[in-house]
Write a structure and sequence with these properties.
By secondary structure, the protein is an alpha/beta fold. It contains 14 helices and 11 strands. The longest helix has 23 residues. The protein starts with a helix and ends with a helix. The relative contact order is 0.13.
Length: 317
Amino acid sequence: MNRLCKILNIRFPIIQGGMGNISNAPLTAAISEAGALGTFGVGTRTPEEVEPILQQIKRTTTKPFAVNIPISVTKYGKEWIDLVSKYSVPVVSLSAGNPANFIPYLKERGIKVMTVVGTVKHGLKAMEAGTDIVVGEGFEAAGINSPYEITTMALIPQLRNSLSIPIIAAGGIGDGRGLAAALTLGADGVQLGTRFIVAKEAPFSKRYKEKIIQANDQATVIVGRSVGKIRRLLHTPYAQQLLTEEQNGMDEETYFRKTTELVHWRGAMEGDVENGLMNSGQIAGLVYAEQTAEEIIDSLIQEAKQAITELYKSYIV
């Protein structure tokens, strides 16, 4: 058992990425039940909307799970700390903002803290602020991304050279070969989002899952560069509309209005490719079939073991 698994009290060094307002209890619980760390993202929801979902997760699994708080997206602060404390949530993931004001209060309550970063500079700041774990998210990842556009393969070894705490690699990891590569680069574990979209327990639209399964290596696009707020999406008619409007000078206010969590919901939950967006990482081309969360996690572990064994046999003398 590596140090990440010990800290999080999980069997496998695999973390579910936060998914904003499409996060749900069935998928979070299923991932935790399978020995990884399920994550529920609060997105833009209120504490009153989230509380019954936390109750459902607690009813469904006794295993550890995390809550993701996107700092600059939510308008709540202390309310989240009170809520995760009330339900004895063992891990909180902080993203999209400065975690310094959250970390002390969470740690006072015995909650482990993970902080998502896109640069070494922010990783160092998070470590200095007291985070237990840093999630290094590369530009390959789905959804809202760092404007610095550093890839996972470049980011993780540089984080490892600079940080003494555990590191999780996120972005561009979709199978066991990616897990093995991340560990080789210096990560203690991996975070996945896109691969779990097709989990059988996930209540996403059939069309969203089909689009992921049918995707190839060129299936995603980046929107938001013109306003400095980038996001990786499946290349759907709606994504193309956003790209076209950007080329024609779309302003920041319009961009935010067209990429809200409601628009995300339309695409992911209702399967509306004309009026809703669908987040996806670049690894969508590695996803071939719908599986249970347990099958996905087991395949990742077995593939990683096989990749490491074959590498040792082939290149180590």
